[in-house]
Amino acid sequence: MIDKAKVRQAVALLLEGIGEDPGREGLRETPDRIARMYEEIFEGMDQNPREVLEKTFEASNSGIVLEKDIVFYSICEHHLLPFYGKAHVAYLSGGRVVGLSKLARTVEIFARRPQIQEQLTVQIADSIMEYLKPEGVMVMLEAEHMCMTMRGIKKPGALTVTLAVRGAFENDPHLQEEFWRMMGR
Ligand code: ZN
């Protein structure tokens, strides 16, 4: 659970720290507004993908299941600025599948935490391996990082691409080819 009182105090202090007056009219509600917003954008802190991924059902005719273009928003843990983009999640069923919305839900649970993109990619792949127990998983994330576009190297539109490959996808190049074919690349 987010400690909203603590977040309110911290934001007021932060505003003071940058030389602002947290008491002025435009800022008076800001600490509370941010505390409420953090409850939403960090709600993944309290959530476990197990509950989402363990509701599986049998599928006799299964192969690669790919859910692509799952839009996600996350917060970079180094700068507390957003990074956002698309996740593409594929798994090779071991006889059981989950509802497609559950893959998007899993992405969201991990995205709504302070994150780095590499770790987010790995956590999605590993949790699907652990709870859904498929033959293999392949997860690709493409994201734009505000900490790269509004400061630092300032490269708007630059995409960071990360990949996590597990199980059968690791060992069988044909399965990886199939993933890229299904992705249309
Ligand atoms: Zn950053």
Bound molecules: zinc ion
Strand % is 25-35%
For this structure, the quaternary state is: single chain
Kindly name the structural category: alpha+beta
Count of runs of 4 or more consecutive helical residues: 8
Low-confidence stretches: none
Shape: elongated
Provide a descriptive summary of the structure in words.
Helix content is 42%, strand content 26%. It is elongated, with a radius of gyration of 19 Å. It has helices spanning 4-17, 30-41, 50-53, 100-111, 117-132, 146-149, 168-171, 173-183; strands at residues 57-58, 64-76, 82-92, 96-97, 114-115, 136-145, 160-167. A 5-stranded mixed sheet has the order 5-2-3-6-7. The protein has a two-stranded antiparallel ribbon with strand order 1-4. With 185 residues, it is an alpha+beta fold. The N and C termini lie far apart (41 Å). Helix 1 (4-17) packs across helix 2 (30-41) and helix 4 crosses helix 5. The longest helix is centred in the last third of the chain and has 16 residues, at 117-132. A hairpin with a 5-residue loop joins strand 2 (64-76) and strand 3 (82-92). Residues 76, 78-79, 81, 145, 147 line the site of zinc ion.
